[in-house]
Amino acid sequence: MTGVFLELGQRPDEPGPPIHGTASYPADVAARLAADAAVIIARYPQPRSALLPLLHLTQSEDGCLTPAGIAFCARQLDLSPAEVTAVATFYSMYRRTPTGDYLVGVCTNTLCAIMGGDAILDTLQEHLGVDAGSTTADGKVTLEHIECNAACDYAPVVMVNWEFFDNQTPSTARDLVDALRAGELPKPTRGASLCTFRDTARVLAGLPAAAHEEDQSLPGDASLAGLRFAHRHDMAAPAPDSSGSEAVTTREGQSAGDDEAHAAESAKDEPAPGPSADVPAGASTPETDPKATDS
């Protein structure tokens, strides 16, 4: 009888290397992270809801996911390491390999590719002497091919630690990485100021970072084009209580306003409506669905 050998571990088709690195934190590091974790966890009604920001916190310490970070999150939230790992490996913003000071991501999805994204990535790979997914020898830049950044109106887009550099060319992208490696911090086209990858992870965890300045920018011209068109043509979405039978309604008595008003409208921060206890319109109930039966 012939035996079959099965090697257990990461699936061959699973993206990214396994999580590896230091297994535990020194006592002083663990204590410092625990103090930060307590601040984060206190913001949530259920502790396990803090898992994503806690993963960013550990990434700010290690520069990537490590067994020490996974174990730390598990202890803080009373989860198993397997539960933490399952979440951590789902999201691409959690890195599995050490990351340089600046994560340079080049989008090559459809519109960016058409506008030159592929050429930018090829140029940077040759210029930096690394393949996508690798870090330069000086540890400054990690080059990454990334998926759509929802910034197609500024294609092709390069991101540095998740901040936008719009309308790039191979030449401007080369200048960008040269500046980063020289210790300069180019100003993003829009968004917050640049800081290191580890500081960025700390900001994403919801904690202050010394070199980080808040985003004070407003949406740019390309993002506002549709809104301005709607204002010029007296168009608006149906009112919340509308049946939705009409695609648009008119804005009687309203002027288009200036650009700052448009920008403020497109970026206004309002809470989403809470869940309703009512059965949604059209949903079946035991009274309306003859197939429904008592449980």
UniProtKB/TrEMBL annotation:
Q: What is the lineage of its organism?
A: Bacteria, Bacillati, Actinomycetota, Actinomycetes, Mycobacteriales
Q: Which InterPro entries match?
A: NuoE-like (IPR002023), NuoE_dom (IPR042128), NuoE_N (IPR041921), Thioredoxin-like_sf (IPR036249)
Polar residues compositional bias, start-end: 242-253
CDD domains with a match to the protein in the record: TRX_Fd_NuoE
Any single GO molecular-function term of the entry would be: 2 iron, 2 sulfur cluster binding
Keyword RNA-binding included in the entry's annotation: no
EC category: oxidoreductase
Q: Output this protein's name.
A: NADH-quinone oxidoreductase subunit E
Sorted keywords for this record are: 2Fe-2S, Iron, Iron-sulfur, Metal-binding, Oxidoreductase
Family assignment from sequence similarity: Belongs to the complex I 24 kDa subunit family.
Is-annotated flag, keyword Ribosomal protein?
no
Name the source organism: Mycolicibacterium vanbaalenii
Which Pfam families did the record assign?
Answer: 2Fe-2S_thioredx (PF01257)
Q: Where is the composition biased (Basic and acidic residues)?
A: 259-271
